[in-house]
Specification:
Elements (H helix, E strand, L loop, with lengths): L7 H11 L21 E5 L2 E4 L4 E4 L14 H13 L8 H13 L5 E5 L2 H16 L3 E5 L12 E2 L9 E2 L6 H4 L2 E4 L4 H11 L3 E6 L2 E2 L5 E2 L2 H14 L2 E6 L10 H9 L7 E4 L10 E5 L1 H4 L18 H14 L4 H23 L4 E5 L2 E5 L8 H4 L4 H13 L2 E2 L8 E2 L6 H15 L3
Parallel strand pairs: 3-17, 5-8, 5-9, 9-12, 12-13
Antiparallel strand pairs: 1-2, 2-3, 4-14, 6-7, 10-11, 13-14, 15-16, 16-18
């Protein structure tokens, strides 16, 4: 590793002169946890090295995409071959069809899928499509769920229950979010109240089935069943935002887990990203043909993108999906996640630190709380200062957890049992300092 000439601090200072906050996505700035972000020089397998040559066991994995680990040989080869054929054409390619078919095989609730370049774009487009198909304007989202930064989805809960939301961001006019109802995750009574009040005006309910933007909160089966029933009853579309959970918590995504618990369960729309692009800018949204046929150029709902279905990104996604589809892939991933969460829980118990954790497939989360939270208000009862101390204690020991208590963690196939053991040992030392 040839040491970089600049330290993390020097790079951060230079970055802040030319990029707002020194980063191209806010969570990377360490504002929630304090301190100086680590500028990545390179990554390989379960690790990345910062510009000062420090190695970290990486539990972010680009916030989910790097399920194989960084620099997987087969994926690198596929991308290298694709690049030599061209970067982008703005014209259709066979590989987009191959990837669309691969996604539909993995998520059979969809008949058709449209490829885009980010989860935000996928969620924004899916919302427009739901509104175009139903002719309705209102939508329900849940506090603590994040669906990208499209205006209509940057909403926090209103004053009371089942009230329309207020913008979470400057620059979003109130009239843009006036149709967005923000409810409490896992709150069946509120859901029923909202449908009783607005059912026939609702275009869709959009939900993270396992809320990775609240760290790791599962929608209860009863709650999900009620979402499904009420959407069906009132003609609203149930949209699963699986940008994070898609092909990450299971090969069939989170919806395959709910289909095991609720016979015949299917969402009406699915929003995906991250893993299906393997780390390249690629996301997607899909539904049954009868819904997707409303999209341009077939129907009146406009949606477009210069780099949609990019030939290099589709090569990366296809190679990634091929690897994760191999027998036993998710069994191995789930075992590692479970070993990690159980080891962290044991280390916390030994140190007398309140801890609750959960995992599914290659995604995990934990809270410095005795009980696993069921909604955003409970998540935010976490001791932020204690979490930040934990984060930095682990960082100093070369373990890179999510730099915010409301973010999930990700294990890759490249994480070895030794990496997991090293992480637990580091936590054992850090919990004692909390
Ligand atoms: P992007 O526009 O960032 O590709 O995707 C937005 C999005 C949509 N839906 C869900 C469930 C998501 O988790 C995301 C993005 N996730 C965050 C992590 N919490 C990305 C990290 C970041 O914002 O830098």
């Amino acid at each position: 590793m040839t040491p970089n000439t600049e330290t993390n601090e020097q790079l951060f200072a230079r970055a802040q002169r030319v990029i707002p906050g020194g980063v191209n996505s806010p969570v990377r700035a360490f504002k929630a946890v304090g301190g100086t972000p680590r500028f990545v020089k390179r990554a390989q397998g379960a690790y990345f090295w910062d510009v000062e040559g420090q190695r970290y066991i990486d539990y972010i994995g680009s916030w989910g995409p790097m399920i194989l680990g960084h620099g997987h040989h087969g994926v690198v080869q596929a991308v290298q071959a694709a690049v030599l054929e061209g970067f982008s054409y703005g014209a259709p390619t066979a590989r987009e069809v191959d990837l669309a078919e691969a996604i539909l095989r993995l998520v059979p609730s969809m008949d058709m899928v449209r490829l885009v370049s980010s989860g935000t774009e996928a969620a924004m487009s899916a919302l427009r499509l739901a509104r175009g198909v139903t002719g309705r304007h209102k939508l329900i989202k849940f506090e603590g769920c994040y669906h990208g930064h499209a205006d209509a989805l940057l909403v926090k809960a209103g004053s009371g229950l089942a009230t329309f939301g207020n913008p979470t961001s400057a620059g979003v006019p109130p009239e843009v979010v006036q149709h967005t109802l923000v409810l409490e995750y896992n709150n069946i009574a509120q859901l029923e109240e909202a449908f009783a009040l607005y059912g026939k005006e609702l275009a869709c309910v959009v939900i993270e089935p396992i809320a990775g933007n609240m760290n790791f909160v599962r929608a209860s089966v009863a709650f999900m069943q009620r979402c499904r029933e009420l959407c069906t009853e009132h003609g609203a579309l149930l949209a699963f935002d699986e940008v994070m959970t898609g092909c990450r918590v299971a090969l069939g995504s989170a919806q395959s887990l709910y289909a095991k618990a609720i016979p015949g369960f299917e969402p009406d729309m699915t929003i995906m990203g991250k893993v299906i692009g393997g780390g390249m800018p690629l996301a997607a949204f899909g539904a049954k043909r009868a819904v997707m046929e409303h999209l341009a150029p077939m129907g009146p709902v406009y949606q477009a993108g210069t780099l949609s279905g990019n030939p290099v990104a589709t090569a990366c996604g296809l190679a990634t999906l091929a690897e994760i589809s191999k027998p036993g892939f998710f069994d191995g991933l789930a075992r590692k996640s479970r070993t990690l969460v159980d080891g962290l829980a044991q280390a916390a118990r030994e140190a007398g630190v309140p801890f609750s954790g959960d995992c599914e497939g290659g995604m995990f989360g934990f809270f410095l709380l005795e009980q696993l939270p069921q909604n955003y208000a409970q998540v935010m009862k976490s001791d932020g200062a204690r979490f930040n101390k934990l984060f930095h204690g682990m960082l100093e020991r070369g373990i890179y957890f999510a730099p915010a208590l409301y973010e999930a963690g990700f294990v890759s196939a490249a994480h070895s049992d030794a990496d997991i053991a090293e992480t637990i040992e580091a936590a054992r030392a850090v919990f004692k300092t909390l």
